[in-house]
Amino acid sequence: MKETTMSSLLPKASPSAGAAVSLENLVRTFGSVRALDGFSLKIEPGEFMALLGPSGCGKTTALRVLAGFEILDSGRVVVDGIDLSNVNARKRDMGMVFQSYSLFPNMNALNNVAFGLRMRKQSRSVRQKKASELLEMVGLADQAVKYPHQMSGGQQQRVALARALAIEPRVLLLDEPLSALDAMVRAELRDQIRQLQQRLAITTVFVTHDQEEVLSMADRVCVMSRGHIEQVATPAEIYARPSTAFVAQFVGISSRVPVKLSGQEVVIFDQRCPVRSGESSSVTGAADALLRPEDIAIEVSADGTGFVTRKSFLGAMTRLVVQVGDLSVRVDVRSDVGSDIELGTRVQPRIVARDVLVAPRKEVAILDVDAPYRPPQTAD
Amino acid sequence: MAPLVGEVAEAENEVVPSFSTGSSKRRRRVRWWRGVVLVLAGAFFLIPVYAGVKFSLQNNEHHFSFQAYESLASAPGFTAALTLSLKIALVTMVVSTLLMVPTAIYVHVRLPRLRRLLDVVTVLPIVIPPIVLIVGVLGVYPLWAKSSPYLLSFMYVILAMPFVYRSLDAGIGAIDLKTLTEASRSLGGSWSKTMWRVILPNIRPALLSATVLTLALVFGEFTMAQLDIWQTIPVWIAQFSVSSDGPIQVAASMIGLLGTWVLLLLVVSIDRSESRRNRKKLRSS
User: Are A321 and A350 in the same domain?
Assistant: First the structure.
């Protein structure tokens, strides 16, 4: 008997799969707010691009412009060399999965998936066959006759994904599709989406504010702020080599440490460190170094200049807050090491990063670790 | 600070039992009042209906009889009035639906800021007396329009607007119309197909409610029809009561009332039967 595997069920990548997308100088304003302010981005065929940023940064607007749901003030949306800026949303061949469950309540799962094919005037038998295959692909073959209100949130989003894929879209658009799901379902669906995207090689644009999703799924990440791009790079680069202070603070955790610039070097914990090239190198005057927890190592020492003020168990790692003078920094250590370190333990921090990101001094501390800590007093 | 904790704990110990007792007493009182309100409201609505039914089911000697209902069909002018009312109701329902459904949908999808304005505008027909409307219209409209009974339909569209718009607004508000519309559009659905296959099926209960309310309004409206000199059912009832005995007139009213109720029950049962069908499909799968 022939074994049914997921890869055998997946539709073959269509000729239209893997379209190149180019968003050129997009401007979209809502009243006095510029949601997109000269936003330009190129997405390679078959690439999984994530748009990441805080609420109101314009990421959803960019996705909706690409889908054709927002009219541009200026700029161009080009897919496979064709300017789609003035093309109606229904003619763009873009499958979209929405944040809120968007299944049609009056149709069962099968008919929801078949809807796009029906709009394309496919015969009933073709529609049924393809919709069944897609439901099987997302693991919901047994839910075909169920209506949306009879399915869980995770199941609904799977059906929505199958429905978006059914039309063999040129670009797959995912608008925070996992944000309404619980953690376990989210992790499972995240893997499934990534697996399908890689198998079908569909150019995918994924909007989210969840860093974990972005870092684990995307080929490249576009970090956005106030309608423009802060950095476009691979997840590893975004995390390890943020090019701006905004990216460093938004992605992952950074401790902000006031430093004195000395040419292209700074001194932190009596240690000279080179300044990272890029935006950092142009900083002058008062500055802060942005340090990841893993940029700093500690050594337990009775003569250490810092002491541990807080300790959080994170599983494999333990995060410590170390106070050095008036500064507080976060440091990650392996949990087997961290378990031996008590609050108040004297430690000597040192920078292990090859260079550090430097940003203009910020007056307001962004961390909640700045409250001065006083070690327990011993009785005389 | 320890005494403070003790005080709080003590206070809680004292308060909790008396609070829960008070709460259950209040709940009983609430239930009791609910029953009274229900009985009073029921009496208010049902006593006149009971009196009407009783009156229509007696003959001239005050004995039980179906005579009024039997002679209703042959009563002079009844069939013509009923036919006219049905025709006007049909046109009103069609025009009202064609006008209000796209308007309500468009406002929800594209102009949500106008919803408040529309809420106010659609209430105006309740505030403005029908007599003012019809006198104004009769004074302005050309003769050919006034000579058609369907002018009344257009007036009734205005009168029905508060009920129709509110029904539709509630129905549309219950679904995520914007997302559903966008989902349909992204899958290649034109506006007409989106409307026909996605939106209308999902607001069907609201649409049916709006239709039934319009029908009820047309079958109950007297002032405009009387002034426009068209003998609809309410006008016929009023005129017939002058020249004939009461039971037939009341029998006609009761039939109109029951007809509306039957239609309302139909609306509810259509929804229920759909839910049953869905459950049946699910079980069979």
Answer: yes
